[in-house]
Amino acid sequence: MNQSQKKNYELLKNPSFTPSLNIYLHTYKSCLGRVLNIVANKPKRSMPWKVVLEIGSGIEIPVKALIINRKNTVSLKSRIEKAAIDLDGTRTGNKKEITWVQNDGKSIDKSDIGNAYSYGNKLVTIADETTYETGDRCLQLLVFCPR
């Protein structure tokens, strides 16, 4: 610290001076946790998955591929969990009921919630027309085509 910095530090350290200005002194270590929460995270890349490339009927090569479509639940900002009330007294247990709520307090119907996947830092929605049932994960090479 140079001379003016030391002078300012001593002035701020004075207990009669700091409460009037609402000044709080922190060390580097005490501020590091707060700064790390502010710094933006790196965008996530799509995750690779391992599959087997089948060439004909007898050759299998393990390869890595990128996930194109994957089912993720969209996490909305708030939700309310309600426990069912046991009206008949049989004590069958509590059932969870989850209601998704917008910021303004309006509830969201289950039919309005769609499917999506994250690609990097973007959220890509999946239309109902593009969904299909698949078998085991694999890649099959059916034929080589001449150029």
List its traits.
about 150 residues, alpha+beta, 3 helices, three-stranded antiparallel β-sheet, three-stranded mixed β-sheet
What does this structure look like?
With 147 residues, the chain is α+β, with helices and mostly antiparallel strands. The chain has 3 domains: 3-38, no CATH class; 42-74 and 114-147, no CATH class; 76-107, no CATH class. The protein has 3 helices and 8 strands; from the N terminus they run αααββββββββ. Strand 6 (115-119) and strand 7 (122-126) form a beta hairpin. The longest helix has 11 residues, at 3-13.
Ordered list of secondary-structure elements with their pairings:
Layout: H1 3-13, H2 18-21, H3 28-38, E1 48-55, E2 59-66, E3 78-83, E4 96-101, E5 107-108, E6 115-119, E7 122-126, E8 139-141
Parallel strand pairs: 1-8
Antiparallel strand pairs: 1-2, 3-4, 4-5, 6-7
Question: How many beta-strand elements?
Answer: 8
Structural class: alpha+beta
Order of helices and strands: HHHEEEEEEEE
* Number of distinct helices: 3
Spans where pLDDT lies below 50 across 5 or more residues:
none
Largest sheet: 3 strands, mixed
Mean pLDDT: 68
Proportion of strand residues: 25-35%
Q: Which outline best applies?
A: flat
